[in-house]
Amino acid sequence: MLTAIERLQLRFSELADPDIHPNFHARIAILDVGGLLHIDFRGTPFSDAFNELCSALVRPNVASVLGSLYLKSPDEGANGTCNWDLSFLVAAEVSFPRLRSFTVAQNEPGAHNRIIVAEDHDEAGVLGLLLHKAPALDTLVVPSAPDSTFFSVDHLALRYLDVDAGYDTQGFIANLADNSCFPALQAMAFGEFNETYLDDYPAGCTPFEDYRRLFLAPHFPSVRSFVWRNPACSSDQIAELRALRPKRDLQIHIVRFSDAYV
Q1: 3-state helix, strand, coil in the chain (%, to 5)
Q2: Phi first, then psi: what are they for 82, rounded to 5°?
């Protein structure tokens, strides 16, 4: 009798269209290590292949042994957006007790579509619900900022957190400053709101005072590495933040990139 994973792999082969370019075939890699499943998926979140993956992941015998999940999409979308609908993970009556690493690949410079986590355009608390279902999660990488529900419960395992703002920062830095719910957090990365084609795009960026509050927060010293993508702060403001934490205690790495049609 085929297992759920074997059936999933078979369905991917059945769904592949031999008449399209191989770059557009949905692909899945599954590794069983010590009884834990590590799954890498490459394909669009709008495909039948992704729906098949969703159905398999929420089977109790799969959810209970899922160790890591990596989701990556080609540069495809609708109206400039590639949205991963993860509501299936949090709506199912299963948890992911052994899930340690969850990644939705983030945007790359030059991409034509903004990658986000959303059923439509709003994150709608799905990342907070996922965090509650995965108490062992120690690594989270996502292309959308979570809302305040993400900070509603102490999560003792999370060590690495990498967040792109997506279409809305949702006060992520302020919420992180105000909540000490991740006592094990050692490294973080944040990509600022970067929709630079908007005339008023700075209004969507994180206020400098939120960063200052985070750097002064009593729980922030546990963070030893901060990768900061596309900050909308001045050089003087960055220097002010740098002065709040000695270099021996916190490594700050600033990454800037932009692209535009002409």
Answers
A1: 30, 20, 50
A2: -115, 105
Instruction: Read off the amino acid at residue 70.
Output: Y
Q: Name the CATH topology of 75-255.
A: 3.80.10
Tokens matching residue 12:
């991917």
How far apart (Å, rounded) are the C-alpha atoms in residues 111 and 164? 15
Closest by Cα among 141, 211, 203 to 174: 211
Rounded CA separation 35/18 (Å): 33
175 in the Ramachandran plot: left (φ > 0), alpha (ψ -120 to 50) or beta?
alpha
Position 171 pLDDT exceeds 90: yes
Residue type, 40: D
SS3 227: strand
Alpha-carbon dihedral 140, 145, 151, 153, rounded to 10 degrees: -50
pLDDT, tens digit (0-9, with 9 covering 90-100), for 70-101: 999 988 888 899 999 999 889 999 999 999 99
Element at 56 (helix H, strand E): helix 48-57
Listing DSSP states for 137-159 in one string gives --EEEESS---GGGGSS--SS--
d(Cα 81, Cα 120) in Å, to the nearest integer?
Answer: 9
**Token digits for 237?**
């403001």
Q: Are strands 81-84 and 187-191 parallel, antiparallel or unpaired?
A: unpaired
